[in-house]
Amino acid sequence: MKVSPKFRGPSLILLGTIHILLFAAGLVAAATLRHGAPYINPFAAGETVRAFFEQNPTAVRVSNFFLFASAVPLGLFAVTMVSRLRFLGVRAAGTNIALFGGLTAASALILSGLFGWVLSLPDVAASVPMVRAILFLSFLFGGAAYAVGFGLLAAGVCVTSYFYRLLPRWLIALGMLVAVAGEFSSLSLVAYPANFLIPITRYLGFIWLLLAAVKLTKSRDEAGAASVLDA
Fold first, then answer.
1. What domain of life (predicted)?
2. What does the pLDDT look like over 187-211, one tens digit per residue?
């Protein structure tokens, strides 16, 4: 009787859940600690932006801490996802595309969180030009750069899963929708209305990420069971 090999690595479901919870904690902290002050758009008037960061340093610092922290489980998720696909027999360039995309998205969140944290410093918040420059860097890394990277992660996983029949077609379709939205969000660099694709990528991506984690974990278990039955 043949004993099927067991995948050794962290739980995709756990990593995905931690990533989403940390990101959500950042949103809750920002809303709670700024005591009703409205969210500031990077394109708002310079003095309005500067005053917001000068008056809400704690909200800025804590929320960006959680954003920074959320990048770690996302990076681990990408690495583990690729490892799991290879364990399931995938031998295709899509796994490398997924790895590149996932690490790009995680790195973008790290940089967005760090730049955002700098905005909590009083000396920085006193300068309108400095606040605007750093805020746009945080916005671009946490927005377009993250979305493009996450889109590549979704595309790499979905395309390989389609050919190897590891995910149901409806979930592959959802992942490809996330991928397309993520890649086209890069157009926000030349056309502001394309920014609406960034939250689509992020929040639909959360749903896809968890569902893909569950399905691929189940695929592993079914593959192992089939291997034992065939022995």
1. Bacteria
2. 999 998 899 999 999 999 999 999 9
